[in-house]
Design goal:
The structure is a homodimer. Chain A is of the alpha/beta class. Chain A contains twelve helices and ten strands.
Chain lengths: 303, 303
């Protein structure tokens, strides 16, 4: 029996952040081919309107389909939150976003928490916050979602989490992407900004136990977020939807995760496209991918 | 004799910052008609490449010409620094950018400083920094220019200031635009970021006396910049190129500045166009214009 032909997976983001999703996919599905597009000439999406984001995301998705993608991963929270349906309608291939896998990962964690701490279930059932839950349903756990302004305004995470009987507390954090792009990953200013955002968010929902990173730039800030949460005395379990999304892609393809192996340098497994400066994509992208980004091709999607 | 027909002036920026230039123009030339375009669907320009910025700026400039602009003001430092010649070549009307007027204002200030403090001229002539200056030329004064990454990389301010026998010390400040757009105008985090940028810049050129704001977002930070400079013990005279640019436009049109009068509410003197969310343009724009922005029209320049 011949081995299955490796699929070609398109991975799309407005910029570099989606490379964290590709980074999670590579060890999980090392035999697939990948085509990555960063729409860097039109980034950021997170501060723009639904119509503009949908227009940009659909044209980018069509490009990846034309290049041979058989499955498309929208590795951008903003594009998923605002344009997943538009992209699904525009393309004849399966399209997987990052919001639903992130919400599912929050549910798994919540279930695990309850199994480990069944006393919480009993205690929380006395809490007024859960008074409206039906007695035979699991108590509602609140998930804090940090994301861009556009993702928060779309309330896509609220819908996805509520559908799983989880509460959502969404917090827009417009300064985090610029801070990551300035390279201030471990910097007192970034810690101060995180302290302000997290304190505001946790004051609104003090019982929160889970934090979902709703932007593909934010995993680079995970150490700073842990440090800040410790400093304000409110440790949280952090969910990075990059890994949850990679798992969802593997499940969709019905492929068992393979033994982890890094891709070889100069391998043809990954093709990178960007709509703006190739040099900048290579320079910034390697931080997100965790290895050098080579052979980036410049394309013009208009605008 | 009939009064002169008021000219139609196009004002272009990637976003809202150019409204500070329009704000300076309104009292100076209250009888002109204005067409303002904010290319908000493709902002920010400041982190992008020359080719992309030139493509966006030329298409935006052509749109304003098609709407009837007889003179165009590029009220965006990044677009001026990287695409002024491209725009001038593409359009048959006069095009005025913000870099040259800003540099001229720095020269006027420098000349004034020397007239007020002639002893500086003698003292500085012994300074090694001025050793290469010809003995019959005025000593070189160093001007600190705060700007976006793209503007700094273009070195447009260095060329403009050097041509006027002034030294330039350019400093890229990528976080200032996001901080202004977050609304953190008077905020300890912004003061801390300014302290880091200004200390780095002034360590490189400690004799600096003049600070040129090389981005149209930065005038909103002028009080914070003054406060920060005082805290580090290095007060500077601040030049905002918005006013210098407005003066250059009046001089080009050979019009004497008129008595200052605010435009009437609901007047048809100003027409606003944006390529993304009208609501956001109205909300953020009023901070830059200093009065409500009404009747914004959405246009699609592609992309």
């Amino acid at each position: 029996m011949n081995p299955p032909i490796p699929p070609t997976i398109g991975v799309f983001d407005s910029g570099f952040g989606g490379l964290t999703v590709l980074r999670a996919l590579l060890p999980l599905l090392p035999n697939a081919n990948y085509i990555y597009l960063g729409d860097t000439a039109r980034l950021p999406y997170g501060s723009k309107s639904h119509d503009t984001i949908a227009r940009y995301a659909v044209s980018s998705a069509k490009f990846l389909h034309e290049q041979g993608a058989e499955l498309l991963v929208i590795a951008c929270n903003t594009a998923t939150a605002l344009a997943l349906e538009d992209i699904q309608q525009a393309l004849p291939i399966p399209v997987i976003g990052v919001v639903e896998p992130g919400a599912q990962a929050a549910l798994s964690l919540s279930t695990k928490n309850l199994q480990c701490h069944p006393e919480r279930s009993a205690a929380e059932s006395k809490d007024l916050r859960f008074a409206s839950a039906a007695p035979d349903r699991a108590p509602i756990e609140s998930v804090l979602v940090l994301a861009t302004a556009a993702t928060v305004q779309s309330h896509a995470y609220t819908r996805a989490l509520n559908a799983l009987n989880l509460e959502a507390n969404e917090k827009a954090c417009p300064l985090l992407v610029p801070l990551v792009e300035e390279g201030w990953i471990n910097h007192p200013v970034t810690d101060e900004v995180l302290k302000i955002y997290l304190t505001e968010a946790l004051t609104a929902a003090p019982a929160t136990q889970t934090l979902l990173l709703g932007c593909t730039h934010y995993p680079l800030l995970e150490p700073a977020i842990h440090r800040t949460l410790a400093s304000i005395g409110h440790p949280l379990t952090i969910i990075d939807s990059a890994h949850a999304t990679a798992q969802a892609v593997a499940a969709h393809l019905n492929l068992s995760p393979q033994t982890s192996k890094p891709i070889a340098q100069g391998s043809s497994l990954c093709t990178f496209y960007a709509t703006d400066s190739i040099e900048k994509f290579q320079r910034l992208g390697s931080n997100f991918l965790g290895q050098p980004v080579s052979e980036v091709r410049l394309i013009d999607l208009g605008g």
